[in-house]
């Protein structure tokens, strides 16, 4: 065996130098050829222009036009996305449905400008997806509003089909929001157990969506596929559980509970006539707050009547009563429960596992109180109780940039959030698995983004396949040069041998040549 301390012979050194030079030359040649292949393949496949899509979100308090752009790989190009909002929402045209379509014109002009004018519009889909505001209306009113909107969308110059304007189920809204949140986190398409659940608190409804392992009734679970992964989701929309639909109902409930002689109370109200105001106590507003509002109250008959501007509610600032009244409203219909256990009315909700993102009015409430994103429900309860118990005059001095309506809104929402998440869904008061935010990183988490991703997920998968196909020539060149390099190295490392006859042993042996 050669002595490792002995200097290499000139011949061996020259051999090694030649091998090193050959390897370096091959590597350099591989880089040059790869670059040429990439340049020529790029020139034959120019980068396509962004493909746009417009999704109009018909919410309960306003209508938004979301303009989304898809990059060459089909994924959202969020830097090119834009949004515009107009108010009021489509549901406000219930008494004049013919005017609903006109409310979309400003949004369509905005979208047309963002995608480059008429030429871009003709190649761009526009879809109208209405949510809880319209779901609360009668079917005939819904259809009349949609018909008015379809007339405008048909004549807009965008690609449009009548079936693209519709009222979407609340479960779809929840799934789309879940898709948007997990896309922003980078967990969409990966391990289901690493995804995040989402809870939305809108104006007219609340949505809850998260991955489950247990077997549920088919009406409570759905499968969503992205890439090679299929997710089993629990998704539910709680209509009338929105932040804007509860305060009036709570005032009714509280005052009915306080008045044992309910029929006598109604008789007194009716005897006052339409010109006089009744006074109701609102536990969900600070002391000193007074507001005239319309209350739907059941008279002695079977129907409900709207006694317009009949009541002035005065705030009593009672956080605990507001919370208990909220829970009481959530449990209405529990006697109709058809499952083993119902947490909210007659609806089954499985145990909430994993982490969650709470958006919309959850986030706005935490932001008002200056709470951290991962605050606990006990933080909401403490902040809400302090706000509700303050006099209105004190609050005006403390919060100079907020209105009286803000104090009433957030006194209520803080109690409502604790009632919904802790008293209703069983999340511990000290639990910090929930983050209250409307965005992940720089990405706004909105269900419209999830709808865009769900509608274009086939293009996203195709974009990944195209990227692999476009790089095949480059990979082939690199692979060939790598194989040559490996062959040369193995050839150099393989020892040279010869067969000799060993006189001492009396047989042929194989020996290495230095």
What does the model show?
The chain is α/β, with parallel strands linked by helices. Among the domains are: 51-168, Nucleotidyltransferase, domain 5, CATH 3.30.420.40; 243-437, Exopolyphosphatase. Domain 2 (Nucleotidyltransferase, domain 5), CATH 3.30.420.150. Helix content is 42%, strand content 21%. The protein has 15 helices and 18 strands. The chain has helices spanning 10-44, 105-115, 118-121, 132-135, 139-154, 170-185, 247-258, 262-272, 319-330, 361-369, 377-389, 392-398, 404-424, 447-470, 472-493, and strands at 51-58, 63-70, 82-86, 125-130, 165-167, 197-201, 205-211, 221-226, 229-239, 278-282, 290-298, 304-315, 356-360, 434-436, 439-440, 443-444, 497-502, 507-512. The strands form 5 sheets. A 6-stranded mixed beta sheet has the order 8-9-7-6-13-14. Strands 3-2-1-4-5 form a 5-stranded mixed beta sheet, sandwiched between helices. The relative contact order is 0.11.
């Amino acid at each position: 065996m050669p002595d490792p301390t002995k200097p290499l012979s000139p011949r061996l050194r020259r051999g090694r130098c030649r091998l090193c030079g050959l390897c370096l030359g091959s590597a350099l040649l591989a880089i040059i050829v790869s670059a040429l292949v990439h340049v020529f393949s790029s020139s034959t496949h120019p980068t396509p222009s962004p493909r746009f899509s417009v999704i109009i979100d018909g919410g309960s308090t306003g209508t938004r036009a979301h303009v989304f752009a898809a990059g060459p790989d089909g994924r959202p190009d969020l830097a090119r996305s834009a949004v515009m909002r107009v108010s009021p929402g489509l549901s406000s045209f219930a008494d004049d449905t013919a005017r609903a379509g006109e409310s979309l014109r400003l949004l369509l002009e905005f979208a047309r400008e963002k995608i480059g004018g008429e030429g871009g519009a003709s190649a761009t889909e526009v879809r109208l997806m209405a949510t809880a505001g319209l779901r609360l209306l009668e079917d005939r009113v819904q259809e009349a509003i949609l018909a008015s909107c379809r007339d405008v969308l048909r004549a807009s110059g965008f690609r449009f089909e009548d079936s693209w304007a519709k009222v979407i189920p609340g479960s779809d809204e929840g799934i789309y929001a879940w898709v948007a949140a997990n896309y922003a986190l980078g967990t969409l398409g990966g391990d289901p157990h690493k995804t995040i659940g989402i809870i939305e608190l809108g104006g007219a409804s609340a949505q809850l969506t998260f991955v489950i392992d247990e077997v549920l009734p088919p009406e409570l679970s759905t499968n969503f596929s992205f890439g090679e992964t299929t997710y089993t989701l629990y998704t539910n929309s709680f209509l009338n559980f929105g932040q804007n639909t509860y305060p009036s109902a709570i005032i009714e409930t509280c005052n009915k509970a306080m008045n044992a002689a309910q029929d006598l109370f109604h008789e007194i109200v009716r005897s006052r006539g339409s010109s006089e105001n009744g006074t109701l106590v609102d536990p969900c507003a600070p002391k000193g707050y007074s507001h005239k509002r319309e209350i739907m109250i059941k008279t002695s008959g079977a129907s409900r009547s709207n006694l317009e501007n009949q009541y002035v509610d005065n705030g009593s600032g009672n956080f605990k009563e507001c919370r208990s009244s909220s829970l009481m409203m959530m449990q209405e219909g529990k006697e109709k429960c058809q499952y083993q256990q119902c947490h909210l009315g007659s609806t089954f909700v499985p145990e909430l596992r994993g982490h969650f993102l709470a958006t919309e009015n959850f986030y706005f409430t935490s932001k008002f109180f200056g709470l951290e994103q991962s605050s606990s429900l006990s933080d909401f309860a403490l902040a809400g109780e302090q706000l509700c118990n303050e006099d209105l005059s004190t609050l005006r001095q403390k919060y100079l940039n907020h209105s009286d309506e803000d104090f009433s809104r957030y006194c209520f929402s803080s109690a409502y959030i604790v009632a919904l998440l802790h008293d209703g869904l069983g999340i511990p008061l000290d639990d910090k698995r929930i983050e209250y935010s409307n965005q992940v990183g720089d990405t706004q988490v909105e269900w419209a983004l999830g709808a865009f991703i769900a509608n274009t997920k086939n293009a996203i998968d195709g974009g990944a396949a195209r990227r692999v196909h476009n790089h095949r020539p480059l990979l082939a060149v690199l692979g060939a040069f790598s194989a040559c390099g490996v062959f040369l190295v193995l050839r150099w490392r393989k020892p040279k041998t010869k067969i000799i006859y060993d006189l001492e042993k009396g047989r042929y042996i194989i020996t290495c040549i230095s």
